[in-house]
Amino acid sequence: MTIDMYDVIRVPRITEKGARLKEKNNVLTFEVRTDANKLQVRKAIEGIFKVKVVDVTTVRSAGKKKRMGQRLGRRSDWKKAYVTLKPGEKIDIFEGA
């Protein structure tokens, strides 16, 4: 099964930790599909943003348990990718944040 590169990357994750990583190591964070692997993430970032990727690290996060009245619910599990870009490369969507 092939996955479209626009389906692999869900949203950029802009946080304080992500801003520090971006300034110090040129690392960007994205929320990706839970079934996407590192190679698919690398190809999607390089294809969409036309940059060179040096490394991809992925982290799986379990959804939090939340109470809805008397019932106990659960948020969905999700996956985050730390993408290290080649020195000198940048993505414009992170520049204004």
Principal-axes geometry comes out as: globular
Number of helices: 3
Q: What is the CATH-assigned architecture?
A: 2-Layer Sandwich
Total number of strands: 6
- Here the CATH topology equals Alpha-Beta Plaits
Percent helix range: 25-40%
Can you say what the CATH homologous superfamily is?
RRM (RNA recognition motif) domain
Low-confidence stretches: none
Protein described:
Helix content is 27%, strand content 36%. With 97 residues, the chain is of the alpha+beta class. The protein has a single domain, classed as RRM (RNA recognition motif) domain (Alpha-Beta Plaits), CATH 3.30.70.330. The relative contact order is 0.24. It starts with a helix and ends in a 12-residue tail after the last strand. The radius of gyration is 15 Å and the shape is globular. It has three helices and six strands, in the order H-E-H-E-H-E-E-E-E. It has a four-stranded antiparallel beta sheet. Strands 4-5 form a two-stranded antiparallel sheet. A hairpin with a 2-residue loop joins strand 4 and strand 5.
